[in-house]
Design goal:
Elements (H helix, E strand, L loop, with lengths): L1 H15 L2 H26 L4 E7 L4 H22 L8 H11 L6 H9 L3 H9 L14 H9 L3 H5 L6 H4 E3 L9 H9 L5 E5 L15 E4 L6 H21 L4 H7 L8 E4 L4 E4 L2 H37 L2 H5 L5 H38 L13 H27 L4 H13 L2 H12 L4 H7 L5 H7 L7 H29 L9 H9 L20 H5 L5
Parallel strand pairs: 1-2, 1-3
Antiparallel strand pairs: 3-4, 5-6
């Protein structure tokens, strides 16, 4: 065992000193950083979409702009009101003061009337119910703010209200002015505008005569940002107009059009009390899928490192020098342990980076605190990952080390080990179905198939099975690893010094069935004849 540990130490240091190790170490963290940075950079570099509108109705475009401004300003004022030291341009802070002076239940109506041009009447009504406010100059009046707001460029709006429509889109003409169709077509063809929207004379229609459709014309049909925004805002305005024309009371309309409110709940606590499910709970349910994929990549990469190392040492005759001082089994055990330690260093770095990025993700992307992304890096997931990586690696490493020992080149090794590594693609194909039904028949069956057990049990971590399943699968994996080591060692003893063409599958099976002499006496001789008796090779004297 001491000599096996020395081999393991040598394997670990040899791999740590290579460029490939450091590339593997930083590859996944670098990809993770890119995955987080590219969407943020894309949002920051997203161009402002200019559009023109031909409004034959004479009113819909104005209502759409007014409704969009009301939504954006209400969201902006609510955000600033909740901040301890709000930071925004002075006109916005002046509007915030006027908005705070309104009764809480009348603020939205006041803002709506302000945008409709009746803000003075709203101020007069508010003055009768709240404490007198200092008189404001024309430069700080709400009407002056609207003039300032409507004259801002998209970059200026994006500086303090990045989610506002005026920060993302630019209407090339005033809301009360048509864009002639000929001019719009010319600008669209010259790519001076992104899209052209045509509003018909009667977009509302009637119960017996549906309203005419709006036309959206653009060269780029893959970018749906402008289309989806205008469709949503125009749809909301038309819905309110149809309600008014149908003469339905607002309360009745709200009741008729109210959507079904389905509150999602989950069980929590030792007694299984029900509570409202959060986004973090949903992410936690899907978290094992992420770890299964990382587990799959880890086992595939590290076992490939083991095969490559074994074949290279055999091809450059270094293995003959090593076998002069230790047995083939000790060499195989040392290589498995050393490269396994290298793999643990790599995946440990991956997990640490993943945990750091996941915990810092809300601050990086501005996600609300209700999204509990830390559920993805729960200790149960991280601990289960390390356990199942270790067990899965030893299972596949024992098999692949023996197969790699019979190959004299990487090309031969790829041909021989692909069928074994192909088994790894089965857990990858089943991870989504198992995550959707962790206690289903598919999960229950694959749990007890040793090549798939580490991946399936990791996949079931969100809804853990009974304790006896953990005990049973752990014993099954340990027994399977023992059998794999036994079979891999027999193949390794004979194949490590074999030269020439790689053996066929029937030869490998014969080696596994051949008796093995006592440790230290059983040493394979150099074999060039593929039809040599494997049992005799196994009992050959040391070279």
């Amino acid at each position: 065992m001491r000599r096996a540990l020395l081999v393991a130490r040598r394997e670990f240091l040899e791999h740590v000193r290579t460029k490939g190790f450091w590339l593997s170490l930083v590859a996944v963290p670098f990809a993770l950083v890119l995955a987080l940075a590219i969407p943020a950079v894309d949002r920051a570099a997203r161009p402002v979409l200019s559009f023109a509108v031909t409004d034959r109705s004479g009113w819909l475009l104005e209502e759409v702009v007014r409704d969009a401004d009301r939504r954006d300003l209400a969201r902006l004022l609510q955000r600033l009101d909740g901040a301890e030291a709000p930071s925004a341009p002075q006109p916005v802070l002046d509007l915030l003061g006027h908005w705070r002076a309104q009764p809480a239940d009348a603020r939205d109506r006041w803002l709506q009337e302000l945008l409709a041009g009746t803000g003075n009447e709203a101020d007069e009504r508010a003055a009768e119910t709240v404490d007198p406010r200092p008189e404001t100059s024309p430069e700080t009046s709400p009407e002056a703010f609207l003039t300032w707001w409507r004259s801002r460029t998209p970059p200026e709006v994006a500086a303090f209200a990045p989610d506002a429509w005026r920060a993302r889109f630019h209407l090339v003409h005033r809301p009360d002015r048509w864009t002639p169709p000929a001019e719009a077509r010319t600008n669209l063809a010259a790519e001076r505008i992104f899209a052209w929207i045509e509003i018909p004379e009667d977009p509302v229609g009637s119960p017996r005569r549906p309203g005419a459709a709006l036309d959206y014309t653009a060269r780029n049909l893959t970018n749906r940002d402008l289309r989806d925004w205008f469709e949503a805002r125009a749809g909301a305005v038309l819905e309110r107009q149809r309600r008014r024309e149908a003469d339905l009371a607002p309360e009745l309309w709200a009741w008729v059009s109210a959507p079904l409110d389905l509150e999602v709940r989950t069980l929590a606590g030792p007694r299984g009390q029900a509570r409202a499910a959060s986004t973090g709970d949903v992410l936690g349910q899907w978290g094992p899928v992420v770890f299964v994929y990382i587990l799959w990549v880890s086992v595939l990469v590290v076992t490939q490192m083991l095969v490559t190392s074994t074949v290279e040492e055999k091809s450059n005759k270094l293995v003959e020098v090593l076998l002069a001082t230790l047995s083939p089994v000790e060499l195989m055990a040392g290589k498995i342990l050393g490269i396994g330690a290298t793999g643990l260093a790599i995946v440990g770095t991956w997990l640490a980076t993943f945990a750091a990025a996941t915990i810092g993700l809300p601050a990086l992307l501005g996600a609300p605190s209700a999204v509990d992304l830390t559920a993805l890096v729960a200790p149960a997931y991280l601990g289960a990952f390390l356990v199942y990586f270790t067990l899965g690696y030893f299972l596949y490493a024992a098999l692949l080390a023996g197969l790699g020992a019979v190959c004299s080149s990487l090309k031969e090794a790829q041909t021989l080990v692909i069928p074994v590594q192909g088994i790894l693609f089965v857990p990858l194909a089943t991870m989504i179905p198992i995550a959707r039904d962790p206690s289903g028949t598919l999960a229950s069956v694959f749990t007890w198939l040793p090549p798939f057990t580490p991946f399936v049990m990791m996949n079931r971590a969100a809804q853990p099975p009974e304790p006896w399943v953990y005990v049973g699968t752990t014993l099954l994996l340990l027994a399977s690893i023992g059998a794999a080591v036994w079979a891999g060692a027999k193949v390794f003893r004979i194949g490590i010094l074999m030269t020439g063409q790689p053996p066929k599958l029937r030869d490998v099976l014969r080696w596994m069935a051949a008796p093995v002499g006592p440790t230290g006496a059983a040493r394979p001789a150099l074999a060039t004849d593929r039809d040599a008796d494997p049992a005799a090779d196994g009992e050959a004297e040391r070279p």
